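Worked example 2:
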Amino acid sequence: MVGPYVHAVRHDKTLYVSGLTALGTDNQSKGIAEQTETVLSQLQTILEIEGCDSTNILKATLFLKSIDGLSTIRPMLVEFYGKHLPACSLVEVSSLIHSDLLVEIEAVEALF
């Protein structure tokens, strides 16, 4: 069971986005590319709701069950970020909230 939380919280001119995963989606049990596509779509939706885009992302943290997955998702991240590259941390983890999950992404955005 996932604890009580919100997907994003605003403080002053900063938006903090909780770790996003493919949990509960059609891509939950699929590969890292499909899960990342779902997560980036979720992040895009949150940004649009806040009137932002990927250029507002200051920092992203990626949690991968296998660091080898980076070679698969790197092109997806490059396309998502465009010319604006945020600060980024990559962490290999032994598990996520569900055994099917391979990737989780959290982010911090500047709001103008």
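The beta strands are 8-11, 14-20, 57-64, 87-92, 103-110. The chain has a mean pLDDT of 96.
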